[in-house]
Amino acid sequence: MKKITFLLMITILIISCKEKNKVVQKSNSKKVFVIDSVTVKKHLYTLASDEMQGRRAGTEGIEKAAQYIENEFKRIGLKTYDTLSSYRQNFVTKELKMFNVIGVLEGKSKKDEFVVISAHYDHLGMKKDGEGDLIFNGANDDASGVTGVLTLAEYFKNKGNNERTILFVAFTAEEMGLIGSKYFGKGIDASKFVAGINLEMIGKSPSFGPNTAWLTGFERSDFGTIVQKNLEGSGYKLYPDPYTNFNLFFRSDNASLARLGIPSHTFSTTAIDIDKDYHKVTDEAETLNMTVISETIKAVAKGTESIITGKDTPSRVVLEEK
To answer: Residue 203 has what DSSP assignment?
Structure first.
């Protein structure tokens, strides 16, 4: 009888330990964030909705967009930038109250070295009069890019391997002449900024075919070759900008940082001046491909990861305009 009782107690103890271990494992497990079309569609359709009224700087619509981005930064767990008390970097230009929205993921061993991941969240607003659709929703230009910024923020926060500090920035008033990024650039020590990763119009299949993107200013630093090397074997390819006659390197927010010597480039999948929906009310979320956006975001994450982790440092950008 004593032997049976002893064996029973041992059995109960073993079962109890196993169950306790399961609880510990469950509590210590970390939910892996997956870059997928569901997340992409949520961000894109919200930012490009009619409710945002075309997100023109200085309007009620861009205020709503800023609030959405701020709420996402807060949910993800990003910190505020520098001495700011909120995610907003406020300033006044052209008698308009403007604000970049900035979230920070602090680095570890190289926290004083910064990488910017950016896109502009403004667009053209609404037509003043007329019939039919009056809203410039700006789905591809550049709700797609902001979708990438938000998704990458959650990805790298979950990954937790950023040795360098990442600034996730939604720039305002790009459509008015890169105003938001120029203001941001005035207040930084450019020598501490390692790279700028800008996303612009990543919602449509590029001329190179599926699972490809192109990079502006490819020849101006070795940023692009670093990304290409990291993408080897992934099935995704990055090409130099094929539309050099459009001078795209200097037409997006990367230029404001590049002029400070920062190796800052723009990823895109869409030819700006060739796209039939560019700066038209037809630039709607329904015209974009969620898979293209998702796969491009994945490629940006993988392609730039060695820069984020501090393994690679791109050469400073060549400043002369060509």
So the answer is: S
